[in-house]
Amino acid sequence: MRFRDFDVLTFDCYGTLIDWESGLYTALAPLLARAGVTLTRDAVLATFAEREASQQAATPDMQYAALLEEVHGQLARIWGVAASDEENRRFGASVADWPAFPDTREALRALKPHFRLVILSNVDRESFSRSNERLGVTFDAIHTAQDIGSYKPDPRNFRYLLDRLAEDGVDPRRVLHVAQSLFHDHAPANAVGLASAWIDRRAGTSGWGATSAPPPNVRYDVRFESLGALVVAHRAEIEAG
Asked: Which residues belong to the active site?
């Protein structure tokens, strides 16, 4: 794969640019303490992943903040305590507090002069606007689940992305999708024929964390363990001519 073959980088945000696992786990801390949960962090995140994926499939048009509130209430019941409307609300609003990965801002700024940068995210517009303050660049386009009416990995989200790019005259063969989640992003990117770069933020750990397990045939064109490593590879290609 050569970076020079692409004009547009499309990005997942949460898990790729924003450290959503740390953000989620921190936001769940009050419930975990109240319920006396002794599960490992990854086990907690796996339970969240199962409930989130189920709720997204059941209510694809529910805004993400409200969906997080619903999932938080479900987790309270699973862990044997009464749901709290106020705790649910705080969890739904917690996206604004989730941190960016340490390499995100510098990497995006390094890529911006060379590519159009586009977001395809599973959140609502308001939640993303708060995260965008942490990212340090102006994106050329932002597409959220709220805009589309469904959540990744629904192929509809990627068809929407390609339709919007086509309106701007972009050839899909000139698009590279950059994402962490094999389940949410790479599998549906495969389905619509997009090239993809896996940012394997969980390298060296087992399991899938806050995402569901991907289908067995999922593929990607290139793998990096960080967004910074992708930038290093891009610079090397430029220097090599």
From this structure: 12
